[in-house]
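WARN retry 2 of 3 for item q-0093 after timeout on previous attempt; input resubmitted unchanged.
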Amino acid sequence: MSHLPQLHEAIAAATKTLQSLVDLDAQIGEAADLIDQCLSAGNKLLVCGNGGSATDASHLATEFGRTFRQRSNGASGDLSRKR
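OK item q-0093 returned
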């Protein structure tokens, strides 16, 4: 039994989801500006999640840390890691 129809359906669904992000352009830009203002002012950005979302939050915090550490005090971090 071929799984190609399922694969094509999954690709079509993913494509539709990604294309829908274009409609959120203004909101994503506004959110990015707010995060930039927050971190540039020396504030902290806290992100959290449960299960797989915690992993996503960890990756997001790491990316923000890399991006803003050069410009600020490195005000993002991963609280899930034991130090």
